From TrEMBL:
<dbReference type="InterPro" id="IPR036291">
    <property type="entry name" value="NAD(P)-bd_dom_sf"/>
</dbReference>
<dbReference type="InterPro" id="IPR013328">
    <property type="entry name" value="6PGD_dom2"/>
</dbReference>
<protein>
    <submittedName>
        <fullName>NAD(P)-dependent oxidoreductase</fullName>
        <ecNumber>1.1.-.-</ecNumber>
    </submittedName>
</protein>
<feature type="domain" description="3-hydroxyisobutyrate dehydrogenase-like NAD-binding">
    <location>
        <begin position="173"/>
        <end position="289"/>
    </location>
</feature>
<keyword id="KW-0520">NAD</keyword>
<dbReference type="GO" id="GO:0016491">
    <property type="term" value="F:oxidoreductase activity"/>
</dbReference>
<dbReference type="InterPro" id="IPR015815">
    <property type="entry name" value="HIBADH-related"/>
</dbReference>
<dbReference type="InterPro" id="IPR029154">
    <property type="entry name" value="HIBADH-like_NADP-bd"/>
</dbReference>
<dbReference type="InterPro" id="IPR051265">
    <property type="entry name" value="HIBADH-related_NP60_sf"/>
</dbReference>
<dbReference type="Pfam" id="PF03446">
    <property type="entry name" value="NAD_binding_2"/>
</dbReference>
<dbReference type="InterPro" id="IPR006115">
    <property type="entry name" value="6PGDH_NADP-bd"/>
</dbReference>
<dbReference type="InterPro" id="IPR008927">
    <property type="entry name" value="6-PGluconate_DH-like_C_sf"/>
</dbReference>
<feature type="domain" description="6-phosphogluconate dehydrogenase NADP-binding">
    <location>
        <begin position="14"/>
        <end position="169"/>
    </location>
</feature>
<comment type="similarity">
    <text>Belongs to the HIBADH-related family.</text>
</comment>
<dbReference type="Pfam" id="PF14833">
    <property type="entry name" value="NAD_binding_11"/>
</dbReference>
<keyword id="KW-0560">Oxidoreductase</keyword>
Length: 301
């Protein structure tokens, strides 16, 4: 049974559990909006820089959540979120809103909703669409499903981290199902970018000629231009790490399998991500899938 949500404060205190690429960016957006932020990360060094931005960096998860109105989690997967909630359990109180922004898939969302209920929390399944740059700009799109009574408490937080909030419904996992559809488009789009660059290289075509041909037309996208530039400039600083993209792609394929849907392109994208990760590109941007398509060097080359 869902716990009652307390009256919404004018300025909610927010505990951010998980301060990687997305979590740190969202924490800074919250601080710019004037909200009080407490930040915790399992690896303290990742949270420490937020102190200079005005966050209270805590030693433990329980310290971060104690007295907070809303707990925002931004972690790698269901297991990591569950572990963070367990670590925070002594500081949690009944009626706190849990804004769970990680991509965990529909099963993960349902599991975490049950864990939240067991802890007396009000769970909002709230995966975000966007990567490092929109997160840093407070321009994410946030997909949310959960009790409508939590909207008042969550509203200032959602306004700070995103340019748009899409309320999907109250059913646990509804937002996560929609997020998998969004990510299917993303992983296959980046695979298409990588394969075009691979073919251009293989045929001796200047990839910039290809980019110029489509630039500004109906076949062009901002994603094509920005991801191609990352490869051509050799700057694969992650906006969305390849290993994270692989994790999400596996969630997509698992959900599709249960739904009886065959996703050939997505399966191929997963295979490319796996090859690139095995070659040491997991911590680079997801467009490092480009390296999975390069022809192996032959003896004597």
């Amino acid at each position: 049974m869902t716990s009652a949500v307390p009256a919404a404060p004018q300025q909610p205190v927010v505990a951010v559990l998980g301060t990687g690429i997305m979590g740190a960016a969202m924490a800074r957006s919250l601080l710019r909006a004037g909200l009080e932020v407490r930040a915790w990360n399992r690896t303290p060094a990742k949270a420490a820089p937020l102190a200079a931005d005005g966050a209270t960096v805590t030693r433990t998860a329980a310290e971060a959540v104690r007295g907070a109105h809303l707990v925002l989690t931004s972690l790698s997967d269901t297991t990591a979120v569950a572990a963070a909630l367990a670590a925070a359990s002594e500081g949690l109180h009944r009626g706190q809103v849990l804004l769970q922004t990680s991509t965990v898939g529909p099963d993960g969302a349902v599991e975490l909703a049950q864990r939240a209920a067991d802890l007396g929390l009000v769970h909002l399944d709230a995966p975000v669409a966007g990567t490092r740059q929109p997160a840093e700009a407070g321009a994410l799109t946030v997909l949310v499903s959960g009790p409508s009574a939590a909207r008042a408490v969550a509203g200032p937080v959602l306004d700070a981290i995103g340019q748009r909030t899409v309320w999907v419904g109250e059913e646990p996992g509804a937002a996560s199902r929609l997020k998998l559809v969004v990510n299917t488009w993303v992983v296959n789009l980046v695979g298409g970018v990588a394969e075009c660059l691979n073919l251009a290289e293989g045929l001796g075509v200047d990839p910039r000629a290809f980019l110029d041909v489509v630039r500004g037309g109906p076949l062009d996208t901002g994603y094509l231009q920005s991801k191609s530039a990352a490869v051509l400039d050799g700057d694969l600083t992650p906006s969305f790490a390849l290993s994270t993209a692989l994790k999400d792609t596996r969630l997509i394929l698992e959900a599709a399998g249960r739904a009886g849907v065959r996703l050939d392109l997505t399966a191929a994208s997963a295979a490319r991500f796996e090859r690139a990760e095995a070659d040491g590109h997991g911590d680079e941007d997801m467009v490092a899938t480009y390296y999975a398509g390069r022809a192996p060097e032959r003896d004597g080359d």
